[in-house]
Write the structure tokens for this entry.
Amino acid sequence: MQFGGKTWLPPSPAEALEQGIAMVHQHFSLVPRMTVVENLMLGQARGVLNRAAFAARISDIADRFGFVLDPNAVVGELSVGERQRAEIVKCLMRDPQLLVLDEPTAVLPPSEIGALLDICRRVADSGRAVILVTHKLAEIAKVADKVAVLRTGRLVAQADMATADMGALVQAMVGREVKPLDVALDDSEDSAVAPPNQPGFALVCDGLTVLDRHGATRLDNFTLEVRPGEIVGLAGVEGNGQSELGMVLAGLLAPTEGRYFIGDVELTHAGAAAVTAAGGGIVPEDRHAVACVTAMSVAENMYLNKLDRFTRFGLLQRRALNEAALVQMKEFDVRAAGPDVAFSGLSGGNQQKAVLGRELTLDPLVALVAAQPTRGLDVSAVEAVYRQIRAAARRGVGVLLISSELDELIAVADRIAVLYRGRLVGERPAEMNERGAIGALMSGQGAI
Amino acid sequence: MTVLALKMPDRRRLMALSIPFAAVVGSMAIGLLLIAISGKSVPDAIEAFIDGAFGTAFAVGASINRAVALALIGLGFILAARANLTNVGGEGQIAVGGIAATAFALWQPVADLPLGLAVIVPLLAGTLAGAVWGGIAGVMKVRFGTNEVISTLLLGFVALLMVYWCVQSTALLRQPQTSSSTLPESLPIPDATKLPGLTGDPESPLHIGLVLCLLLALATAVVLQRSTFGLRLRAIGLNELAARRAGMPGSLLLVVALGIAGGFGGLTGAIMLQGEQFYLKAGFSSGYGFDGLVVGLLSRGSTLGVLAGALFFGFLRSGGISMEIMAGVPAALTLVIQGLIVIAVAGSVILVEKLEAEQR
């Protein structure tokens, strides 16, 4: 790595700061109960605290780069955008040569994005370098001089913004590499089978809106219908509302607005048990946090939501439970030493197959919501997951497949909807030649 | 998983038993040294300890009664601990249980009930009062996110003051004030409401609380290891979100778990009152809640562990009181020795766990 013309590898964050590299992280490091001045004095003031002088410096910097920030406001009462400005001022007080912003617009409401980009421009004009890390191409197009595309840790494209071809950049972002995964994907003997045209809906989301506790909109008027036997892919870069949608559909988070049905049953505020009873199978994106109790046995995990079936006079019929689990392990190819070994001892692939098996054997099963179901799995497990999802759809289950892997969605889904900043920004057929169009939607072009 | 160390290979089982044993012997030796330093006669102290703990049939009975109280608190503790809840409010739950049991036992219609109901109704009242006291902490946890360690502890202090209030006010439970020397205590409860003795011998303090305790220990073991409810508590304790996703009523389970733990505490209070003390006075819970908490902590979640620990601390308490009275060892010193033993046992339990983990 070269910095300021010298080869350099910073041994510590403090060293990097010392050398003039400042970074605004996605998650702010401010103390909510202290004022802006007090926050900024942390780590910078020595000896006697001089609030007034510090406040003057803050106002001075804010003026110079053209933004408004009240130094005496309590951080906890500021909007996300104002907090971000406080973070930026914190960096600028050290007079850095290089300012790095990590996904700065991910947390901002659309109305504040323009102001942030203006600040970036002013900082750059003052003779400092700015690196803006984002997946939102449209923002870069507005403000950047140069653009570089990073995919799976590698630099795959570089261009001057003035001459760059947006289509080529999108292609570079979403990529198309020959990976072992493709074996599983291309083996899709039945992906072309048209969905059976069954009446009614398996899953209906009607205007779902989720505000987080800061009042920021994480999911914005999300409306989508999935028919029985249909696989709908939901594409989008992670952090664009998928997690919130998953929690709502799992019955673990009440939406701020909107309604949600499985079959004919409204489940908006009904809770997880009702989702299961209505026939909603859920494969959550965070397996360890939501789908299983890793310290408990394989059998206990595979029947975690059906324990009543093995209960007589309040006692758990362990033998019956283990026998049933053994059958199900065979059916879904869950490889473990036995039904009573700890779930934590299984590989990720086998854990996921067990979770999928549990959710697919719901009776009735009307809809399946699978979020990032193949993340971190080996090729054979990925193939098994796809096979099971397709088989479920053939049986008439409506599937919502939430994924950030475009290849996966194109291979498995019938149509693909795109989520950007918590909103549905478009829908395309799941075809290879739509990659560019879907990629553009994912990076927010035509949607900012 | 299994009760205590029954399934371990012999060598490891030996280790799991010998380390705590050595720790207890070691800390007792330090205790004796402290007694010698304080200028008291060590042989006298040992004799007093043995006399008080198991020297006579009476002493054994009293020690076992103490163990019953400690075991019940410990059982409630491990039940709630299965749901990852730490109930440190045993002392207060004993107190409210004692208040309720006294109030019902002193109510004439209850004392006149036939068929042993005169005994059972105050026991149930005490249990219910304790369950409500524990349940309040549970509701606070699921509604407001209050940490149950803090809420059970503070509710405990409230309960202790309530006992004080009850025995200070004649409008509540204080006996009628006939002279200026009337103590701030309740009237003694009627004989009909006292727990029946276990042996025919009227001199033996041993009462049916022991039988009740053993039955409840068995029930606790079954609930924890064989029941679906026990498995659900475990799931909630290990991963609350996953348990909720699996359709378990998370909030209800947490409230019920703390309610049961509190119920055990309330029952303890009723048994202490109806079995031995027979009238309510300030400070009547005298630390059993906290000692029972230690028993629960040291048991590593095993029912047999609770019973063993309760017996040990029951005898230790009796011996300590006797040392204080007969050998003149300062009360503070016996507390120090008890503390040493707790630390030694707790430390050795952790050591055994560590060694087991290394061998795995």
